[in-house]
Known about the structure:
- The chain is 8% helix and 35% strand.
- The chain has a 15-stranded mixed β-sheet that branches. Strands 1, 2, 4, 5, 7, 8, 10, 11 and 12 form a nine-stranded antiparallel β-sheet that branches. It has a five-stranded mixed β-sheet with strand order 31-39-38-33-34.
- Strand 24 and strand 25 form a beta hairpin.
- It is elongated and about 115 Å long.
- 45% of the residues are buried.
Amino acid sequence: MKRIIARYMSVVAACVMLSGCSDALDGGGVTDGSGMVTINLRNSSATRSEASDNSETLIGNVVVALYPDSPGEEEPAVALQKFDGLDVHDVAKVQMKLTDEMVNKLFNGVSGAGCKLYAVANVGDMSKISENATISELKGTVAASSFDTRKVQESFVMAGPGKVEYKVTGGKGAATGAGDLVRAAAKVRLNVKLPESVKDDNGDVWYPEVREGSGMRVMLTNGVKSSVASPATDLQPGDDDYYSMTMRQTDVVRTLSDRGAGEYRYQMDVPLYTYPNRWTETPEERHKTMMTLVVPWRKAGEQTWSTYFYQVPVTDLTQISSNYSYTVNLNVGMLGSLVPETPEELDELSYQIVDWSSERIDVNITDSRYLVVSPKNFEVNNEKEITIPVFSSHSVIVTDITMTYKRFNYYSDEDGNGNGEVVEFTVTKEQIDASNKKATDTKLCTYPEGTLSANAQRQLELTVSHPLTVWIPYDKDGQEVSLTKRNKNNSNSPETVNETIAYYQESSSKEAAYSPYTIKVTLQHQDNPAYTEEITIVQYPGMYIQADRNPGGSYNTGWTSRREGSWPNRYDKYSPTTSAYGFVYVNPTYTYVADNSSGNPNPEPFGYWNNSSTLGGVHGLGSSSSSNKNPNMYVISVSVLQDGSEYVIGDPRMLYTNNSLNGGSNLTTSTSNGNEDTSWSVEADALYDGTSKRRLKYYYPTIEGENSKMMIAPKIRVASSYGVSEEKNRTNMRRRVASYQEQGCPAGRWRLPTYGELLFITTLSNEGKIPKLFDGTYLTAQGPYKVDPDKKTVTESNATTYSVRGIYDEWYWEAQDNYVLQPNSSGGYDFTWGDVPRNATRSAELINMYKSRIVK
Length: 856
């Protein structure tokens, strides 16, 4: 068994509400094909003891970016917007404008789908952030400060991710999420207890001289003034990033005043601030963050006072973490050092470390008390176990743990053909404990049942283990609970089903998981419930599924005419007819209708699309009784294959183009782009090399040889049922997928599946993981195959006409920034060629990137 020690990733979320977007969402009055996303970004505001919050909760500006819900941080933003001049506290409400293409790429209208959000607030120069910045780039945004030059800061750099979940209710789409922005900095406080007097070694009595204007002061040594918006735990500041205060900086050095209550009644006027730091407890260490306390003492019988210096550690740990508040209670019971370079070290002190967001007003603590987990969110890829370090002054226990997962085949049809509804189920701590108790071998999810134990280095650790296999739910009577079948009266809705589940057992075949799991763990001091931390772990299996719903939509597909007006001024009025094809096209011709017949006083010109019947046509979703009516495009990610698998992960496309697509059973390649017979393809706008309308030019078909028969691409999108086709011959089906377009996925990029991809997808359907997508004879790159869902077989066919269901290489095109199909003025999509010359080096790099996401 391999043990994975968590790599740190700072995580936080944001409150998000989606208010409408064209066909995908409730329109909300938007008429330009775009929608508004209303986002509430809440910072981790503290309960403050100061009258003012010292700008700690201020949000002056913010950059918000949205990303597809997939692992990793290197994917370009689908949408990014910058908001300046907000100047609000605690919560910033902004509205992002999204095009339909953005909405479809992020959610695709499927209820239960989600996307990732990342935001950076209080950035010094937002112009330096690119319009398609990755999460990794946003995390690395420069975080400067004036910690070394002023007490009260103008603002604090904050950053954090969020989860946006899309729901469809009453035919209208909305998305919500919640969370906090995390400050990159940490806060430091010092509270001091002073005696009425002390005696020196000679027996002389000294009194603290802490009157107004001549009181105690505190300086920070080796604070960090420069960092990034989301500092990694192992980030080591450079020498130029440090700062140290001096007595001459009267505007920066903090003063302590008598607050008149509590044992440690002398407290700072304004906290000290620093970005994260790490150090070692060795003699040669030069960058340990410390405080220097200055206390004036007056000897009895004398009128003047002397200044004494004390060295005060910020923490008894060897690091300072983002968004934590470090409080030190110090008892000054003796004279210090007269030399500022060698301050006196005192032993009577205690520490409190709390999350900045949960800081309490009462800082008068009598013992060292802290519970630190930084960061609080983690991702693991194809590993069942994660170990997370926990820093705590006291014993820690797990008070709650939950797991959530999704199912993609929830249906109500008696014949078992669903419309692809996606539902989410939550496993409670009670269900986890009951499952573990019933387990005879493998347990559902293990976690520390007593106090957390320490490793050999005396470091507390939280270890959570969940085998990435399919787990079957059972009710209290031991009957299996269905996670797919919805009763006609909806008496077993997902919420109701979840309540009937008593426990889970691992599938007898130890079938691999196919949904990501989100595990949330709540930690607490065993003796004090006020000290808690919540940790989120997202666990990605080696293969997982995402259902992107085609939200529908209509476009002009013909025209009608009628006689209007009165004699002798009658005329023919032409009007377009529309079809609900979900913006699916197949090699369509475009016809312009001027509508300017003789006598028409108000001509209204329009155009319409005529899809190619030769290539199988476009027919929309099936009727309510049809077996082919699923609007979902299924995105399947595969990074690790089961042991002994015959599949091979790779790029199934040819190295060279073939735009004519005419030939027998083994298509050859051609590099003569300009000389090929492409007359079959229509002239249309193109994203690349499209200064004027052109035909298909840079198409890379699927390799048709046997050597690539079992190859599957690492992340593919399968066309929805909007693309249902009439049966045609091999050449026409090749040309159909080459000229196929669905929503924002343009033509020239779709291809035939390999036999391996067809087999992989039908196997998912046979296992009940996704609805039935293939039923009949379909063309693959290796020829036609007959799919029989009832017999669960895929057999080679001698048919000469067949259907086809196209594949879109999501792994390759989702990272394409320069040639993205945008919605038209009405919010829909026009047919557009999206073919682009292939970069073989980039293809290899992307394939390796997908494989490297999984730790083997």
